Amino acid sequence: MSMNRKILAMLTVMTGIGVATICPAQDTPKGGGDKSQQKTVQLKLEKFKQASSTNFASSLKLPFESLASLGFRIEQARKDSDPVALAALANELGVAEKVSGKKADVTSADLAKEATELASLRGVPEELQALVLMTSDTSAQSRLNTQLEAAKQLRARRAADAKAAAGGSGDAASPQSLRGTVQVINLTDDELEIRINGFRSGRSFANSSIFLTFFDVPGGTTRLEAISFFEGLKAFKTIEQDVSFTTFVIQEN
């Protein structure tokens, strides 16, 4: 891709009641929120190191056959947004590093950190529990255990909300949930994958516009990502969950 070619995408977060869906750009949701609070955040798509371009066998000087496919397996775990797979690959690479005494461009520490951050972002109890068992870092284990308990409590509350709603004694959606709509205007020649808090939320095709409605829980942060795995480009921004009418303008660096 020519670096002179402009890449531009806009992500607009605004409050509004809805369900998880994708709708055409002309069907702009009408929702609440104070438009006077509208703000624009500038982001740039940056190149990221793709593990598939790393020759682990050569870098570590080892004859392990598994190293030939390690980079591709790391990229697949990233595409799948799978923290458990990333943690397992981090452990695999860590063993190879100990045997070799060397390190490649992508290290086991890098992967372990990436796996932990992704699991924390997603907040899935089973994933957090798996990472507790897979890490030997006591500090990381402590943080993950705290997040695991919080994730279990959140799941229990959501189950109670669903049961109450089914019985007609509550709303269909928890009042503690944030209902937001993300507008993605992709004016690039690239297909971008849009993720919200580590979950694949939609696909933005080149030169197109979509709306993605999502549910989340207030009190923390929301991370939005636009990724082109084909080109190895990524842009992301972390915002407070109660921020509404925020426009993210993404262009190539």
Summarize the SSE layout with pairings.
Layout: E1 8-15, E2 22-24, E3 39-47, H1 56-60, H2 67-79, H3 83-100, H4 108-122, H5 125-134, H6 138-166, E4 178-186, E5 192-196, E6 199-204, E7 208-216, E8 221-228, E9 233-240, E10 246-252
Parallel strand pairs: 3-10
Antiparallel strand pairs: 1-4, 1-10, 2-7, 3-9, 4-7, 5-6, 5-8, 8-9
Largest sheet: 10 strands, mixed
Number of helical regions: 6
Low-confidence sequence ranges:
1-33
How many domain units? 2
Which overall shape is indicated by the principal axes computed on the Cα atoms? flat
Mean pLDDT: 79
Percentage of residues assigned to helices: 25-40%
CATH secondary-structure class of the largest domain: Mainly Beta
Q: Say what the CATH topology of the largest domain is.
A: Immunoglobulin-like
Rounded radius of gyration (Å): 20 Å
Number of E-type strands: 10
Strand percent estimate: 25-35%
Distance between the termini: 12 Å
**Oligomeric state, counting identical vs distinct chains:** single chain
Strand order in the largest sheet:
2-7-4-1-10-3-9-8-5-6
Query: CATH architecture of the largest domain, please?
Result: Sandwich
Order of helices and strands: EEEHHHHHHEEEEEEE
